[in-house]
Specification:
Blueprint (H helix, E strand, L loop, with lengths): L1 H17 L6 E5 L8 H12 L5 E5 L1 H10 L4 H10 L2 H4 L11 H7 L4 E5 L10 E3 L2 H10 L7 E2 L8 E7 L4 E5 L1 E2 L1 H8 L4 E3 L2 E3 L2 E5 L1 H4 L3 H6 L4 E6 L13 H11 L5 H6 L3 E4 L12 H17 L1 H11 L16 H4 L2 E9 L3 H10 L7 E2 L1 H13 L6 E8 L2 E8 L5 E10 L3 E12 L5 E9 L3 E9 L8 E15 L2 E21 L3 E19 L1 H5 L5 E13 L10 E12 L4 E5 L5 E6 L1 E14 L3 E13 L10 E2 L11 E2 L8 E2 L3 E13 L3 E13 L11 E12 L2 E10 L5 E7 L4
Parallel strand pairs: 1-2, 1-12, 2-6, 4-9, 12-13, 14-17, 31-32
Antiparallel strand pairs: 3-18, 5-8, 6-7, 6-11, 10-11, 14-15, 16-17, 18-19, 18-38, 19-20, 20-21, 21-22, 22-23, 23-24, 24-25, 25-26, 26-29, 27-28, 29-30, 30-34, 31-33, 34-35, 35-36, 36-37, 37-38
Helix pairs in contact: 2-4, 2-13, 3-8
Length: 743
């Protein structure tokens, strides 16, 4: 079927250029990073004018636009496609949050810096800040049906070629055949930014270093009339070259002038789009919109020349060129019969793992869901840096080729934040996958700041979906406790936690954990009010049975506009697996009683009105039952987040610092979120809460009411902003500044 479509497309291209006696037209698209979106605007005008395209060549971004055009993405299809991509994700190596498990999503929204490292052998996929994993996946999707080795002159709807540079001998490499996504990936590999592509003995980087405007390549392919598009702005001055990215951009620009004048002279019609105000890294939606428009405007300024070009080509106004449409990716919309599996660059253990986990010996068809599950498991369970699933057409169906890149030896994470309460804090993480028959991953985390935390975790990835986990965490806490808005006392204590979770289901939106935890608390000192000092604190330990459930379908971790977040936990706290000690005011044991039951939950939904305004109602609370409630596990409220300073902490609008409340606490909150521009958010929040010693007394106590406003800018370094609040509980205004992700 796919082969037939390809042959039909090629036949149409030949018919278009031979049925009417005319000259072959070549379109040449230069490199320029994000500025290349302007190529799409020029192609729109060429289609509007009725100019046929028989040959396409390009370099870097020109190879991407040109390659897609060559397989059937007309100008309007390209326009729609580039606007629907999240380019800030595509040009990184981050995991797609839509494909990640809940715990992995949390990790990605905690750390500022994430990178995979390979130790013990050379990493052949390294060599740049970005490995290009997400670009490779995008190319596999966009070039569906054209991912096998092809002759670009015969097997595409429009003959195509792209240029790369072999840094082994500084030679120009022109791709006329091979794997189309791989060729384009090589052509756009900006040195140091993207890892090079290795083919045989060649190490390939951006073709702009040798031929950024390959008109000569188009002429060599038989183009008799050439339309060339470049993307050069006004010459820069020394004052313009400020900052690292501008310096790198200038180095690239001055090294991309090879053959420029000669190729410009070989063009019959040359158009240069001035991308004023935008750079090679301008991939925002606003930039794409402007750059496409710049391309259209530049082409319209040459409208008379474009129309006059028809005479040179040998056509008139009655001529109608063929407008192609992209091959619909059947593999993405319907199931296809599998004729076999091929595993590339995988260990026998990894192959057995995938066959057993997904029952591949019994699977006879594949769809987009299974395709994605396979590649996700290869990265998440088997720890491969990159994973690729190709569907190769064969008689009777498709062959599924699962290709793996280098295997991760470890993953390093780093995060940093600042706030007016704790000041600076640093979070470091190390994920170490163990290459065993059953995959095992170790996770080491270290937090440095006023509160110190060290955590070690071992997670087993068996072939079924639960992932048993063992963990040990050490907290060195330094906590200020307030009473009605005034600092009451400071308590310093060490807390050790060891937890075993035999049940640990970690799915895309859902996480369920059940197990046993041991806590040991060593109290160092308490400073503050005389009443606080009178309470004797002795070292103590607890055993608790715990069940936790989390669900999160929100579209954004920090500023959601749709989706639901729900968390619930039940814990039964004891000293000896069954009961709790009764302790008097002097810290002496007075007997035993039943354990403490801890029930807590929070639920939030987001409703968007228009495109920028979101309403978020939330209900939450924590109920403690039992005749003994250890003070260290008592209810606390305050701050911006759940569990920020201590695990039982609950936020409350208008209360900025940590305050103890009664054992029964319930609250409701309503937040209004207004987005300004792309990344600025104004938040208004009101909350009401009830707390009492017993559930039946909740309505007997005064209602707590609080309100706050916040202004935040969502940056690549995390949310940056400030909050101002007031409540009738503290009767004081508080001001809080936050810089970075919460941890």
């Amino acid at each position: 079927m796919i082969v037939a479509v390809l042959m039909t497309g090629t036949a149409n291209a030949q018919l278009d250029s031979t049925a009417v006696k005319r000259k072959k037209v070549g379109v040449v698209l230069s490199g320029g990073g994000a500025k290349g979106m302007a190529h799409i605007g020029v192609l729109k005008v060429l289609e509007k004018a009725g100019i046929p395209v028989d040959i396409v060549t390009g370099t870097s971004i020109g190879s991407i636009v040109g390659g897609l055009y060559a397989i059937g993405y007309n100008a309007h299809s390209l326009d729609s496609m580039v606007r629907t991509q999240d380019w800030t994700y595509v040009i990184t190596d981050k995991e797609d949050l839509r494909k990640q498990s809940l715990l992995d999503r949390k990790k990605q929204n905690t750390y500022l810096f994430n990178t995979g490292l390979t130790i013990g052998k050379r990493d052949m996929s390294a060599g740049g800040l970005i490995r290009g994993k997400n670009l490779a996946e995008l190319f596999q999707k966009l070039f569906v049906g054209y991912t096998d080795s092809l002759d670009f002159n015969k097997d595409l709807k429009i003959p195509f070629a792209c240029v790369a540079t072999n840094i082994m001998d500084n030679s120009e490499v022109v791709f006329h055949s091979g794997r189309l996504p791989q060729a384009i990936r090589a052509s756009m590999s900006i040195p140091a930014a993207f890892s090079p592509v290795r083919i045989g003995d060649m190490v390939l980087v951006d073709g702009g270093l040798k031929n950024n405007f390959p008109v000569d390549v188009a002429r060599g392919m038989g183009a008799e009339v050439v339309i060339g598009i470049t993307l050069n702005g006004k010459p820069k001055t020394a004052e313009d070259i400020t900052g690292t990215m501008k310096i790198v951009g200038q180095i690239i620009d001055v090294n991309c002038v090879n053959k420029y004048d000669e190729n410009k002279a070989l063009s019959d019609l040359w158009m240069n789009v001035d991308p004023h105000g935008y750079s090679t890294a301008s991939f925002t939606s606003e930039a794409i919109d402007s750059l496409v428009r710049y391309g259209e405007e530049e082409a319209m300024r040459h409208w008379d020349e474009i129309i006059a070009l028809k005479k040179l080509i040998g056509i008139d106004d009655s001529f109608r060129p063929t407008i192609y449409y992209p091959l619909r990716p059947n593999a993405m919309t319907e199931r296809q019969h599998i004729v076999g599996f091929t595993f590339e660059n995988m260990t026998p253990q990894a192959e057995r793992f995938l066959r057993n986990k997904f029952h591949l010996n019994k699977v006879d068809s594949i769809d987009a869901k299974l395709e994605q599950e396979l590649t996700t498991s290869m990265r998440m369970d088997l720890f491969y840096q990159t994973a690729e699933c190709q569907l190769i057409p064969q008689a009777g169906g498709v062959r599924v080729v699962l290709s793996a890149g280098e295997r991760k030896s470890l993953q390093f994470h780093a995060g940093v934040r600042y706030d007016t309460e704790e000041h600076a804090a640093i979070l470091l993480g190390l994920d170490i996958p163990l290459k065993t028959a059953i995959p095992v991953e170790t996770d080491i985390t270290l937090r440095l700041g006023k509160r110190v935390m060290a955590r070690g975790e071992i997670t087993i990835h068996p072939r079924f979906f639960t992932r048993p986990t063992f963990s040990y965490t050490f907290h060195r806490n330094d906590v200020d406790v307030y009473t009605y808005g005034d600092l009451d006392y400071n308590i310093r204590y060490n807390q050790s936690q060891a937890e075993f979770l035999p049940i640990n289901f970690d799915l895309r939106h859902f996480n369920l954990q059940m197990g046993l935890r041991w806590d040991f608390l060593h109290y160092r000192n308490k400073l503050g009010s005389e009443m606080a000092k009178q309470v004797t604190l002795k070292n103590e330990h607890f055993f608790s049975y715990r069940a936790r459930m989390a669900f999160n379908s929100e579209d954004n971790w920090n500023f959601p506009t749709r989706g639901t977040r729900f968390n619930a936990e039940y814990a039964y706290l004891t000293n000896n697996f069954a009961q709790l000690d009764v302790i008097d005011a002097e810290g002496n044991k007075q007997g035993k009683t039943a354990g403490m039951s801890d029930v807590c939950a929070n639920w939030r939904m987001s409703f968007t009105i228009g495109s920028r305004f979101t309403i978020q109602p939330m209900l939450y609370g924590r109920l403690l039952f039992g005749s003994v409630v250890p003070a260290v596990f008592g209810n606390t409220i305050g701050g911006e987040w759940f569990g920020h300073y201590v695990e039982q902490q609950m936020p409350f609008a208008g209360v900025g610092n940590l305050e103890y409340v009664h054992n029964q606490f319930v609250a409701a909150q309503l937040q209004a979120q207004q987005r300004i521009g792309k990344s600025i958010y104004v938040l208004l929040r009101v909350a009401a809460g009830q707390h009492a010693p017993k559930v039946k007394e909740l309505l007997d106590y005064r209602t707590m009411i609080g309100a706050q406003g916040a202004f935040y800018y969502n940056t690549m370094f995390g949310p940056v902003g400030a909050t101002l609040g007031y409540s009738n509980h503290t009767k004081k205004a508080y001001f809080f500044i936050n810089l970075g992700y919460e941890f």
